[in-house]
Amino acid sequence: MEALLTMLIPLSIWDPFIAVGSAIMQPLYWVVSGILVLFHSLWSPLFGPDNGWTWALSIVSLTVLIRILLIPLFVKQIKSSRAMQLLQPKVRELQKKYGHDREKLGQETMKLYKEHNANPLASCLPLLLQSPIFIALFRVLDGAARTDAQGNPIARGHWLEVNPELVRSLNEATIFGARISDTFVKAGFDHGITSVHIVTIVLILAMTATLFVTQLQLMRKNMPPEALTGPFAQQQKMMLYLFPLIFAIGGINFPVGVLIYWFASNLWTMGQQFYVIRRNPAPGTPAYDAWEERRKHKGKALVAAEPEPAPEPSAPTASRVVRQQPRKQPRSRR
After folding, report:
1. Phi-psi region of 148 (alpha: psi -120 to 50; beta: other; left: phi over 0)
2. Cβ(54)–Cβ(173) under 8 Å?
3. Dist CA 276 CA 273 (whole Å)
4. What's the whole-number mean pLDDT along residues 44-49?
5. Terminus of the chain with fewer CB atoms < 10 Å: N or C?
6. What is the distance between the alpha carbons of residues 252 and 248, in angstroms, rounded to a whole number?
7. Position 312 in a domain
8. Distance between CA atoms of 175 and 291, rounded to whole angstroms?
9. Residue 324 lies in a domain
10. By the 8 A CB rule, do 73 and 125 touch?
């Protein structure tokens, strides 16, 4: 089975690309290793420097830091995706009108996107910017899992190179009995199903489930009914099942630490998207209808909570006015 999995997605196919881009990746190794060492020093007093949870929380902290830095791009991605969805009926009209002229159709489509500030590439920006960090973390953990001729783990990144004891700690750290630097494929089946297999499968399932839910809530809650038909909608539906499948298959080659990073990142995306859809939904969507319903209930609650104004005192009526009689002055004696 191990040979079958290795043949399915052999990690060696990446080696030429990694070798070519090694010099380019060195600054990212420096950054990733520095952030890991920084968070490791912060979590060490709680769990100990060699505890697996110290390294796992360091990876999660790295994920949170990266996602906080990407919040502006995520907001831009949401707005662009929303604009793309709302423009699909107009795009279909252009396809009917200029379907015979591909060049004219492309020009009019791009003109439409430009007028409504919709960028088809904006939805890919967060993923594209995360990819170098993901690859750098993969290489750092993969190096810690490997050993050189002397049997020492391979340090990648300046901050791990100058701290070889941390590289060995990262190599040997475990959570639930699985080393953070191990992968499903490398664990093998010589000793049957091990804790590495169980932990990686659980993380892969959690990673794919969060990715699936994230895409599903975007399609069901924040897309108008007219945007759920046509080529763009079919493409979105295909991605809904294709992306989780790709991550599920590819996850068998990821170290446990990388799976922790990707699961934490997907979990952050799911929560962040839920918050944005709930607070700022696209018009004409189920999320927008729910948002308006909440506003109505909130408005009624505020009106019911306001105290009734006290009645103003009425002006005195004529019957209530008591006329004061003039007093009779005593007559003076002469």
Report:
1. beta
2. yes
3. 5
4. 94
5. C
6. 7
7. no
8. 42
9. no
10. yes
Distance from C-alpha of 184 to C-alpha of 118, rounded to nearest angstrom: 41
Q: Is the pLDDT of residue 225 over 50?
A: yes
Q: How far apart are CA 201 and CA 171, in angstroms?
A: 20
Do 255 and 183 touch, CB atoms closer than 8 A? yes
Confidence class of residue 7 from pLDDT cuts 50, 70 and 90?
A: very low
Alpha helix stretches (DSSP H) within the chain? 2-8, 15-20, 22-47, 52-69, 71-86, 88-98, 102-115, 125-145, 158-161, 164-172, 184-187, 195-221, 231-250, 256-279, 286-305
Q: How many domains does the chain have?
A: 1
Distance CA 315, CA 132 (A): 79
For the whole model, what pTM was predicted? Answer: 0.72
Task: Identify the domain containing residue 139 by its residue range.
Answer: 13-290
113 occurs within a structural domain: yes
Which range of 137-141, 154-158, 205-209 scores highest in mean pLDDT? It is: 205-209
Report phi then psi at 178, rounded to 5.
-110, 130
Q: How far apart are CA 137 and CA 133, in angstroms?
A: 6
201, 254 Cβ separation under 8 angstroms? no
Centre a 10 Å sphere on the Cβ of residue 226 and count the other Cβ atoms it contains: 14
Residue identified by tokens 């993901």 is: 134
Q: Give the Cα separation of 92 and 85 in Å (integer).
A: 12
Tell whether 313 is covered by a domain.
Answer: no
Q: What are the structure tokens assigned to 179, written together?
A: 């080393």
**What does the alpha-carbon distance between residue 180 and residue 168 come to, in Å, rounded to a whole number?**
12
pLDDT tens readout for residues 191-222: 788 999 999 999 999 999 998 888 887 776 76
Each residue of 84-112: pLDDT tens digit?
A: 767 777 877 888 887 777 888 888 888 88
